[in-house]
Amino acid sequence: MPKPGEKIPFEDLGVEVIVTKGGDGDVTASAGSDDGGLKVGKRYEDAGTGIQVLVTKPGDATLMCNGAAMALQEPKKTKSAD
């Protein structure tokens, strides 16, 4: 069960993430991705467990939680100032 602030390195893939919101699940990574891999500063989440992670070391990988691919978290929309 990952806890907020915990670093999770995937040394075999050269990828590392930091947990920003914990939950009851197992975060893993698999080689290869359909969308160009993980990029620094992008956040991923698992809707079922609520786990959220922040990518700190990029690489060609897919993040998984309990065997299902984690979704890229979209930036929050803010109101326009004009």
Number of helices: 0
**Largest sheet report:** 5 strands, antiparallel
Taken from the alpha-carbon principal axes, the silhouette is globular
What is the number of strand segments? Answer: 8
Strand content: 35-45%
Number of domains: 1
Would you tell me the overall average pLDDT? 92
What is the helical fraction, as a range of percent?
A: under 10%
Structural class assignment: mainly beta
Instruction: Order the strands across the largest sheet as they lie in space.
Output: 1-2-5-4-8
Verbal overview:
- The protein has 82 residues and is mainly β.
- The chain has one domain.
- 0% of the residues lie in helices and 41% in strands.
- The chain is built from no helices and 8 strands.
- The protein has a 5-stranded antiparallel sheet with strand order 1-2-5-4-8, with no helix packed on it.
- It is globular, with a radius of gyration of 13 Å.
- It starts with 6 loop residues before the first strand and ends in a 10-residue tail after the last strand.
- The mean pLDDT is 92.
Output the keywords.
82 residues, mainly beta, three-stranded antiparallel β-sheet
Compact description:
By secondary structure, this protein is an all-beta fold. It contains no helices and 8 strands. The protein has one domain.
What's the layout of helices and strands?
Blueprint: E1 7-10, E2 15-21, E3 27-31, E4 43-45, E5 52-57, E6 61-65, E7 68-69, E8 71-72
Antiparallel strand pairs: 1-2, 2-5, 3-6, 4-5, 4-8, 6-7
